[in-house]
Amino acid sequence: MMKLLPSLHPLIMRCKALFKPLFKSKSHPIKVIFIGIDYRCFSLSKALLDNNHHHSKAIEITAFIDDEPWNNRTQVHQVTVYSPSEIAALVVKHQVDLIIQIEGESLLIADNIWQGIHKTGVDVLTLSLDQDLAQQQDLIYQTRH
């Protein structure tokens, strides 16, 4: 019986090497909140989610923000839509890394809500309308997290 154990060692080592990538700890995703649910936000968020399996740093959309009462608590990409007054609390509760907004979004957020957002220390990224989808994604991945 003792003679079998040394012969199992190479097999065990090969199994460890084979399965190691499966048990490797994954990096934490970049948690984001999107301000707006218009076509541009919808398209960008969809592209980010579609690229999660291609990119080393996954994106996790925590919330969408919209000020229309009929959109409150609805779902976009299986993510809940919240009102602007809830942003700061969502950032703290979910440890959000980044808030993304796109210029031209008709959503208005009051100054006191922006003050609460800035107090959390979360990064806010404002994307330009003249950037294409690929450029916007690159900027998101380049933002400090």
Task: Tell me the layout of helices and strands.
Blueprint: H1 4-23, E1 30-35, H2 39-50, E2 59-65, E3 75-76, E4 79-82, H3 87-94, E5 98-102, H4 111-120, E6 123-127, H5 133-142
Parallel strand pairs: 1-2, 1-5, 2-4, 5-6
Antiparallel strand pairs: 3-4
InterPro entries: SAM-dependent_MTases_sf (IPR029063)
Describe the 3D structure:
With 145 residues, this protein is of the alpha/beta class. The protein has a single domain, classed as NAD(P)-binding Rossmann-like Domain (Rossmann fold, 3-Layer(aba) Sandwich). The protein is built from five helices and six strands. It has a six-stranded mixed sheet, with helices on both faces. Strand 5, helix 4 and strand 6 form a beta-alpha-beta unit. Helix 3 runs parallel beside helix 4.
Keywords:
145 residues, Rossmann fold, single chain, elongated, alpha/beta, six-stranded mixed sheet
Helix-strand pattern, N to C? Answer: HEHEEEHEHEH
- The total strand number stands at 6
Mean pLDDT over the full residue set: 87
User: How many domains is the backbone divided into?
Assistant: 1
In what range is the share of β-strand residues?
15-25%
Q: What is the name of the CATH class? A: Alpha Beta
Shape: elongated
Question: How far apart lie the N and C ends?
Answer: 54 Å
In short:
InterPro entries: SAM-dependent_MTases_sf (IPR029063). The chain is an alpha/beta fold and 145 residues long.
